[in-house]
Structures are given as C-alpha cells and as structure tokens.
Amino acid sequence: MRMDSTARTGSGRDRALIAVYGSSTVREGQPAYRTAYDLGQALARAGADVMTGGYGGIMEACSRGAAEAGAHVVGVTVELFEKRGPVNRWVKERVHTPDIYERLRHIVHRADGFITVPGSIGTLTELFLTWTLLSVNGRPRAPLVVLGDPWTRVLDAHRHPDLVPQHLFEFVRVARTPAEAAQLALSGAPAAGAPHGEGSVTERR
Q1: Where does the pLDDT of residue 204 fall: very low under 50, low under 70, confident under 90, or very high at 90 and above?
Q2: Residue 187: pLDDT over 50
Q3: How far is it, in rounded angstroms, from Cα 1 to Cα 79?
Q4: Which residues share a beta bridge with 97?
Q5: Stated pTM of the model
Q6: Residue 99 contacts by C-beta under 8 Å, 6 or more apart in sequence?
Q7: Rounded (to 5) percent helix, strand, coil in the chain
Q8: How far is residue 14's CA from residue 156's CA, in Å, rounded to a whole number?
Q9: Which helix (H) or strand (E) holds 146?
Q10: pLDDT, tens digit, for every residue of 55-114?
C-alpha cells in the first residue's frame, strides 16, 4: 500500500470519517452528480470528513462538495484502475492500494460510517461486503445508509427467507435526501478519534 501523507489513521482524528460508495460513470450535470455533491456538502457542514474511492463520478462529486465545504477528503485508489485517470483533484489524502481486496479492507475498516449512492456491481460489492462485516461483527458497529429511491427496490428484491432474512435489514437505513443520509450516518458513528481498525501512516497534500 502506498500512502501520500503523514497523518495516522484510526485514533487521533477529531472528525468522523464517512465512506461514500457510488458509480464512477456519473458526469457533472447529471442529477446523481448533484446528489453526491450535496451529500459531500452536508457531511462537511455536519462536521465529518469524507472517504471515497478517489476517482471520478460519484466519488469526484462527493469529494468536491466536501472539500468546498471545508472537509478533509481521503481517496483510496487501486492499481487496477490507474488507467481510468488520476485521483480527482479534491482529494487531500491519497491511499493507493495494490488490489481491490486491500482497497476494500482499508475503506471498510477505517471508516466510522458508510453511505451508498446508486451505482453498478462495484458499488453493490462495497455495500454487501460492508453489510456482511457489520452483521457478523467483522468490524465495530457503524451506520450503513443507502441514499435514493432505487435502493428501496434493491433491498426489497433481496428481502426473502432464502435470500436476506428480515433481521439483517436492521443494519441498513434508507435515506431520501443527502441531508437525511448525513444525519443518519453521523447519528450512529463512534466518537471522533475513537480507535478501531489498523493504523497506517499516510501522506497529505
């Protein structure tokens, strides 16, 4: 793992760090871009910092909104996707990982809460891995929020005794607006600076 900073992850932070998952293909001017931008703004104004996958689309929009509202922005990039282009310019702390597995491990164990904006199979992977680990105590309890009406249909499609049993849905909250998603993600997040996961040395811009 290559880091671009000198700050230590885990304990020692004075703001909650919220991971945001979402599509890399959304472009500025599309409604989803604006939703993610507003989410970044809402998180920053509520006192949180933001962590994304560091590239374009939802990741860029949320990073931009958060940075413009004064938050620290972490981008966790991966060697496999370097051909997609550089880290978006609103990322202040880049963590570059050698593979998808390390990228997901870093995000899932470092974040204090999670918000999923609509996206494709990569976003679904992030959502379901986080959900699984929360449900089996694979990491400390944390809020997991899905933002947007499409998620209601996705969750309902999996709500079946032979698929996802009802009791597992207690780990997921549905938000209709960016402001509501930020509030839900922060209402159950641990106190800022509370130690969890593994520490690592990073580099900031």
Answers
A1: low
A2: yes
A3: 10
A4: 78
A5: 0.87
A6: 78, 79, 80
A7: 40, 20, 40
A8: 37
A9: strand 144-147
A10: 999 999 999 999 999 999 999 999 998 877 789 999 999 999 999 999 999 999 999 999
The whole-angstrom separation of Cα 133 and Cα 113 is 13
Token look-up 């990322």 returns 91
Question: What is the number of other CB atoms lying within 10 angstroms of the CB of residue 116?
Answer: 27
Nearest partner of 115 among 146, 140, 141, 142, judged by Cα = 146
- Residue 109: CB atoms within 10 A of its CB come to 17
Inter-residue contact 16 to 48 (CB < 8 Å): yes
Assign 168 to helix, strand or coil: helix
Helix (H/G/I), strand (E/B), else coil: 44: helix
- Cβ-contact 55, 24 below 8 angstroms: yes
List the domains of the chain with CATH numbers. Answer: 15-188 (3.40.50.450)
What pLDDT, on the 0 to 100 scale, is given for residue 203? 47
Counted residue by residue, the chain has a size of: 205
DSSP, collapsed to helix, strand or coil, labels residue 71 as coil
Q: Write down the pLDDT at residue 194.
A: 47
Residues 6 or more apart from 176 whose CB is under 8 A from it? Answer: 147, 148, 149
Three-state DSSP class for 204?
A: strand
Phi first, then psi: what are they for 143, rounded to 5°? -70, 140
Dihedral, 161, 130, 101, 103 alpha carbons, nearest 10: 160
